[in-house]
Amino acid sequence: MTPQQKTGAGGGAVARSKVTIKTINRMYKNGEPISMMTAQDYPSGMMVDRAGIDMCLVGDSLAMVALGYDSTNPLTVEEMLHHCRAVARGCKSPFLVVDLPYGSFEVSPEEAVRASMRFMKEANAEAIKLEGGQEMAATIERITRIGVPVVGHIGLTPQRQSALGGFRVQGKTAKQAERLLQDALAVQEAGAFCIVLEAIPPQIAAYITRRLSVPTIGIGAGAQCSGQVLVQNDALGLFDRFVPK
Ligand code: KIV
């Protein structure tokens, strides 16, 4: 809960001013922990709003937790637009971030810009998130240059789980850890305003966090990140095909 949030007589959240990218930057500078939670529809978006969470992520994990796909890869831009619009109707105060689905941004920066603009224009997104490190730097630069805020995502990148051999912790060897640091620096340099670190040993995530000048948002990456993100269905125990660590 950020300082601008008010509480009612019973302690429940009653009103809150809009969280913007400036709020996130200010929280980071003040060392305040940043909270992010996923939502996939109108009611789950309302829950994120009412809980006083800072950022709401329409994550492509909804492919698995809400649509029952085996992975995030089959999700289309049209499906994601539909979900993002619904979340946006229920989630007013948190800063709204949406994942670019697999296949919508990798081929060229132009395709990535086109997909990003659709989410801003047609689904009320306020930022996009995309998976990848150094190889995505040029794309992140193009998207941020036209005024769309970008959240990076490195470590376990579920869209590449086939190449990674499953949902596995990344950065366990010194070489992999060094590569993760270079990925984080490249994504920051390209203009990302914050970076999700997924399934990374806590010491490595803490080191990367210290080396960056933008916030890190961890999931399975220890307590030393600038903030934490949770998949709402996991947090509420609503997804039981497997239990993330
Ligand atoms: O899709 C998602 O829910 C995510 C989180 C795991 C960060 O990307």
TrEMBL record:
It is an enzyme of class 2 (transferase). Keywords: Methyltransferase, Pantothenate biosynthesis, Transferase. It holds the Pfam family Pantoate_transf. InterPro entries: Pantoate_hydroxy_MeTrfase, Pyrv/PenolPyrv_kinase-like_dom, Pyrv_kinase-like_dom_sf. It catalyses: (6R)-5,10-methylene-5,6,7,8-tetrahydrofolate + 3-methyl-2-oxobutanoate + H2O = 2-dehydropantoate + (6S)-5,6,7,8-tetrahydrofolate. Catalyzes the reversible reaction in which hydroxymethyl group from 5,10-methylenetetrahydrofolate is transferred onto alpha-ketoisovalerate to form ketopantoate. HAMAP family: PanB. This is 3-methyl-2-oxobutanoate hydroxymethyltransferase. It comes from Syncephalastrum racemosum.
